[in-house]
């Protein structure tokens, strides 16, 4: 705890240099480092992410991509990349709600064998900056999609395979509607927000339970986590031991500290702007205000779509729907048995194989080599941190 | 493919629906292992024993009716879930139930004293099986206050540690809560936020919160009927999606196919089989079988019709019954106490005797412990005296009868204690370990004594005697390094002289063997020695003792010494007993692949282990 708060002060100082030197902010930062209830800290988050990603066999590089004033005044998107110099079509990975780049750890190595891989923390999530989004569903969605497009421009990628999980899948589909020319292949991993909310969906329950449901709808999804404050990481450990188990084969947790739980908690402990954007796009119990299934036909028919679901997840009726709505284009629906919502981690081998297949299709379709940005290569993750610090200060 | 049923209290009616569907459309899935916790374990057992599901359902509804008509629902003092469950199971389970389910049924239990999960799959008798099922369905306070014992260790509901035990990758999970299970209700809401409680994935939705409250407070028969139907539908949908519904002719093909290729089962293996198609068509429009449905209808009718029910359904009457709670509750409490006393009367004397003995033991141990702090220094000085005595005695009367074993034992222990003092310097650390050990030891004494009482079969008696001896021997092994354990041994000796009698007899016979051996079989111990040694180490590893490795070494040396003096009768004895044990121990070893913390294997390990050192001090004198 003490170390964390010390680190907080340091981080606060460095960000001050970047922003402004006014005494007011300094005092506010100093106060908040002492009086904050939730022990959130960018340093701890960075350390946790680094520890998880240290299990990767291939070298990776992480840095902030400055996308200017897309939503806030100066937004930065945290990006990690592997095998950047490969000429094949790159794949861009968008994580789900409450997650971050590090949770792709089981997939990065395999995919990076063949092509450039980019994973980003969506704006408002993970280590990216957290501007406040619009409270309108359509606008919030647009803002998020725009941030991804700004990032692509900054990275100078011509065409890419977009892979999105859960909420990331929703955004990926939305991105493909808006910028179809940039999408070589759309891969949806158990996407959120596709089906329509049933019209007369009122379960016959006593008043008490309906009241609880109504109350929980008015708040941000992870409010309980932040309320738990110092015990937030324990809450993650206790309520989602299954996630820890998924990664236990790769992530080596010595000295008993649960890095994955720490990472997830730190991702969600900060100012929940991305979460608010999600909350704005959501209605009822996890339904989308503008369900994607209604708009899926707006994706031009030359954009191939692969949808990968876990058999234990909520797919039942909707999986076939994408096919129905796009009758004359490529739609490949895969159901991985024994996998749940986190299909990429539950059965990573099968999942990777499906993704790779889709990517190869994109390679064949377009022989254009993706434009790589000319940034000097860093191989070891230790050097990484130094470059990243410089980026922060800049 | 294995099946796994989640524990869920009164929602277990959902499992009945699933079971009906499996029996009808996919009986080949029931040939493999089935695991479960709590109500899920009972459902699994019923499926494996092929019990009539209609009767099970009516029994379940009977329990629900009983629970609902009490003043405080299932928490009423006069309502005992455990008794009703036990009665029902005893009535329905066949006599050879344990043989049918052994190795197939995996029951998830939670060990009370450390909260760890234990999966049991081998049962020696029908009573054994019932005990395991009862322990797995034991929710503290709700079902009672003292958790039931299984193989001498207290367990409670498996739902506290692992509610949905999965045996391998290809386990079909059945859970009445909407979440990430293979067969579960799919509520009309998106599963975005779910939590994972004791290995069971539960979505955070209003329906699930409602279901959660119904685990211990049973709902109306109508709701239960719907749940059962839901279970049937969900199971059917799962089978349909995975193409597991076939005609009997194709069953064999299908099952091997599933084992080989689990990744994409959506492949059609024989689309031509018309019979399968018809079967599937039937299944798509199928509903719960009439036998089960009619039972539900009866239950619903009996709950709704009739003048009494009509009267009690009125709001005014409900209010009245709530208002009258302060008056009816004491009456209920008194009634419950009275009936319990009546039921307990026959066993009362025995129980009281046991209880008083237990309390006496505890008090004496407490007194000893309180005195210990003051005596610690002086005890070490007397040790020195003891060893001189011991050495002299050992030389002169080596192989003679033991008239006063207790005293001699003390001497011996003190000797070793002194040895350690001479070699080791770190005094403070040793004392701290002493405390832990003496506590540990006292615990096992209690267990040996109490477990001595509730057994009847011949095998049990054999086991328990072995166990009892082992416990004493266990002290000796650890005592080699410790001070205080000796005293505990003393106390039990003095208190339970009745218990010691058969042992002393046994010892005497062994001593006679000793004499025989000294002249006759001199060389044969060499061959038996190593195996014995191995067993010793095994058992020692599995133990939760605190001693360090150096101490182990010394133990070994001592044991070597002991076997040097009179090994053969001893090793024969061990061999005999271990071969007897090995019958029971073998399947356990096989079951270790799944869970290492298996109580039975622990016990058998102990019994074989601690025999040799136990004899050492006695016969030395």
UniProtKB/TrEMBL annotation, chain A:
It catalyses: 1-octadecanoyl-sn-glycero-3-phosphate + (9Z)-octadecenoyl-CoA = 1-octadecanoyl-2-(9Z-octadecenoyl)-sn-glycero-3-phosphate + CoA; 1-(5Z,8Z,11Z,14Z-eicosatetraenoyl)-sn-glycero-3-phosphate + (9Z)-octadecenoyl-CoA = 1-(5Z,8Z,11Z,14Z)-eicosatetraenoyl-2-(9Z)-octadecenoyl-sn-glycero-3-phosphate + CoA; 1-(9Z-octadecenoyl)-sn-glycero-3-phosphate + octadecanoyl-CoA = 1-(9Z-octadecenoyl)-2-octadecanoyl-sn-glycero-3-phosphate + CoA; a 1-acyl-sn-glycero-3-phosphate + an acyl-CoA = a 1,2-diacyl-sn-glycero-3-phosphate + CoA. Keywords: Acyltransferase, Cytoplasm, Differentiation, Fatty acid metabolism, Lipid biosynthesis, Lipid droplet, Lipid metabolism, Transferase. Coenzyme A-dependent lysophosphatidic acid acyltransferase that catalyzes the transfer of an acyl group on a lysophosphatidic acid. Functions preferentially with 1-oleoyl-lysophosphatidic acid followed by 1-palmitoyl-lysophosphatidic acid, 1-stearoyl-lysophosphatidic acid and 1-arachidonoyl-lysophosphatidic acid as lipid acceptor. Functions preferentially with arachidonoyl-CoA followed by oleoyl-CoA as acyl group donors. Functions in phosphatidic acid biosynthesis. May regulate the cellular storage of triacylglycerol through activation of the phospholipase PNPLA2. It comes from Frankliniella occidentalis (Western flower thrips). Its EC number is 2.3.1.51. One of its GO terms (molecular function) is carboxylic ester hydrolase activity. Belongs to the peptidase S33 family. ABHD4/ABHD5 subfamily. It is found in: Cytoplasm; Lipid droplet. Residues 90-347 form the AB hydrolase-1 domain. This is 1-acylglycerol-3-phosphate O-acyltransferase ABHD5. The keyword Electron transport does not apply. One of its GO terms (cellular component) is lipid droplet. One of its GO terms (biological process) is cell differentiation.
UniProtKB/TrEMBL annotation, chain B:
Transmembrane segments: none annotated. SUPFAM superfamilies: FabD/lysophospholipase-like (SSF52151). A motif (GXGXXG) lies at residues 7-12. It comes from the Eukaryota. Residues 3-170 form the PNPLA domain. Residues 529-621 are annotated as: Disordered. CDD domains: Pat_iPLA2. Keywords: Hydrolase, Lipid degradation, Lipid metabolism. It is an enzyme of class 3 (hydrolase). It holds the Pfam family Patatin. Its EC number is 3.1.1.3. The active site is at residues 38, 157. PROSITE patterns: PNPLA. GO terms for biological process: lipid homeostasis; triglyceride catabolic process. Residues 574-584 have a biased composition (Polar residues). This is triacylglycerol lipase. It comes from Frankliniella occidentalis.
């Amino acid at each position: 705890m003490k170390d964390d708060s010390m680190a907080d002060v340091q981080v606060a100082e460095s960000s001050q240099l970047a922003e402004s030197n006014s005494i007011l902010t300094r005092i506010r930062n100093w106060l908040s480092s002492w009086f904050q209830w939730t022990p959130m800290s960018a340093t701890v988050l960075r350390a946790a992410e680094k520890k998880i990603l240290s299990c990767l066999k291939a070298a990776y590089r992480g840095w902030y991509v400055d996308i200017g004033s897309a939503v806030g005044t100066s937004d930065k998107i945290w990006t990690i990349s592997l095998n950047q110099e490969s000429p094949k079509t790159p794949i861009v990975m968008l994580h789900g709600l409450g997650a971050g780049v590090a949770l792709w750890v089981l997939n990065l190595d395999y995919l990076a064998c063949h092509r450039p891989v980019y994973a980003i923390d969506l704006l408002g999530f993970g280590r990216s900056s957290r501007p406040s989004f619009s409270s309108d569903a359509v606008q919030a969605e647009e803002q998020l999609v725009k941030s991804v497009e700004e990032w692509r421009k900054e990275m100078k990628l011509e065409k890419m395979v977009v892979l999105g999980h859960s909420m990331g899948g929703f955004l990926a589909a939305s991105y493909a509607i808006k910028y179809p020319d940039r999408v070589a292949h759309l891969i949806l991993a158990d996407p959120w927000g596709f089906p329509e909310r049933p019209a007369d969906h009122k379960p016959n329950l006593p008043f008490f339970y309906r009241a609880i449901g109504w109350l929980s709808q008015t708040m941000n999804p992870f409010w309980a986590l932040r309320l738990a404050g110092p015990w937030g990481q324990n809450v993650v450990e206790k309520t989602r031991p299954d996630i820890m188990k998924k990664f236990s084969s790769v992530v080596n947790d010595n000295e008993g500290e649960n890095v994955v739980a720490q990472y997830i908690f730190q991702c969600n402990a900060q100012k929940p702007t991305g979460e608010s954007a999600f909350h704005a796009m959501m209605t009822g119990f996890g339904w989308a205000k503008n369900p994607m299934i209604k708009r899926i036909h707006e994706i031009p028919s030359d954009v191939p779509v692969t949808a990968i679901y876990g058999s234990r997840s909520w797919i039942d009726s909707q999986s076939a729907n994408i096919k129905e709505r796009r009758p004359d284009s490529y739609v490949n629906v895969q159901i991985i048995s024994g996998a749940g919502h986190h299909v990429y981690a539950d059965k990573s081998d099968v999942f990777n194989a499906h993704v790779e297949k889709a990517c190869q299709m994109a390679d064949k379709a377009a022989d254009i080599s993706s434009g790589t940005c000319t940034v000097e290569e860093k191989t070891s993750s230790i050097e990484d941190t130094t470059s990243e610090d410089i980026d922060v200060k800049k | 493919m294995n099946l796994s049923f989640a524990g869920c209290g009164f929602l277990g009616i959902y499992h009945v629906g699933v079971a009906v569907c499996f029996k009808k459309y996919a009986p080949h899935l029931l040939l493999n292992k089935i695991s479960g916790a709590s109500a899920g374990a009972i459902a699994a057992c019923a499926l494996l024993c092929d019990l009539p599901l209609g009767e099970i359902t009516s029994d379940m509804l009977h329990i629900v009716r009983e629970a609902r008509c009490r003043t405080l629902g299932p928490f009423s003092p006069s309502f005992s879930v455990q008794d009703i469950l036990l009665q029902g199971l005893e009535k329905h389970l066949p006599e050879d139930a344990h043989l049918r389910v052994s190795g197939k049924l995996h029951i998830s239990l939670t060990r009370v004293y450390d909260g760890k999960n234990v999966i049991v799959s081998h049962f020696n008798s029908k009573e054994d099986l019932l005990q395991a099922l009862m322990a797995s369905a034991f929710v503290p306070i709700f079902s009672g206050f003292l958790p039931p014992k299984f193989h001498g260790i207290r367990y409670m509901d498996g739902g506290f540690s692992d509610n949905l035990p999965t045996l391998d990758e290809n386990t079909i999970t059945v859970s009445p809560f909407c979440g990430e299970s293979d067969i579960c209700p799919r509520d009309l809401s998106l599963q975005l936020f779910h939590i994972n409680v004791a290995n069971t994935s539960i979505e955070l939705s209003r329906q699930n919160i409602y279901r959660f409250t119904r685990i211990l407070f049973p709902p109306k028969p109508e709701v239960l009927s719907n749940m059962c139907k839901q279970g049937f539908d969900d199971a059917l949908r799962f089978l349909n999606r995975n193409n597991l519904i076939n005609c009997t002719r194709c069953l064999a093909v299908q099952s091997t196919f599933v084992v080989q290729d689990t990744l994409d089962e959506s492949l059609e293996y024989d689309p031509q089989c018309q019979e399968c198609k018809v079967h599937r068509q039937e299944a798509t429009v199928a509903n719960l079988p009439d036998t089960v449905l009619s039972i539900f209808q009866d239950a619903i009718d009996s709950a709704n019709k009739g003048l009494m029910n009509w009267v009690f359904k009125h709001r005014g009457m409900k209010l009245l019954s709530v208002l009258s709670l302060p008056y009816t509750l004491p009456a209920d409490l008194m009634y419950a106490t009275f009936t319990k006393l009546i039921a307990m009367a026959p066993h009362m004397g025995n129980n009281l005797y046991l209880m008083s003995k237990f309390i006496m033991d505890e008090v004496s141990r407490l007194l000893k412990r309180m005195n210990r702090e003051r005596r610690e220094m002086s005890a070490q000085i007397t040790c020195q005296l003891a060893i001189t005595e011991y050495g002299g005695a050992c030389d002169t009367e080596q192989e003679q009868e033991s008239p006063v074993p207790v005293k001699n034992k003390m001497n011996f222990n003190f000797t070793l204690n002194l040895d350690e003092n001479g070699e080791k310097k770190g005094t403070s650390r040793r004392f701290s370990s002493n405390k832990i050990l003496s506590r540990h030891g006292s615990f096992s004494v209690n267990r040996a004594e109490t477990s001595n009482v509730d057994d009847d079969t011949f095998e049990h008696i054999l086991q328990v005697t072995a166990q009892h001896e082992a416990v004493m021997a266990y002290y000796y092994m650890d005592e080699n390094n410790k001070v205080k354990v000796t005293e505990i041994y003393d106390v039990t000796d003095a208190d339970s002289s009745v218990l010691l009698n058969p042992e002393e007899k046994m010892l005497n016979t062994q001593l006679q063997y000793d004499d025989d051996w000294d002249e006759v079989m001199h060389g044969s111990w060499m061959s038996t020695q190593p195996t014995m040694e191995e067993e010793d180490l095994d058992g020692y590893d599995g133990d939760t003792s605190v001693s360090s490795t150096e101490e182990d070494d010394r133990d070994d040396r001592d044991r070597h010494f002991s076997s040097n003096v009179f090994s053969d009768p001893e090793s024969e004895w061990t061999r005999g007993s271990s071969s007897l044990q090995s019958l029971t121990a073998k399947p356990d070893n096989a079951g270790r692949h799944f869970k290492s913390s298996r109580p039975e294997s622990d016990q058998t390990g102990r019994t074989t282990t601690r025999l040799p050192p136990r004899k050492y001090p006695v016969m030395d004198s």
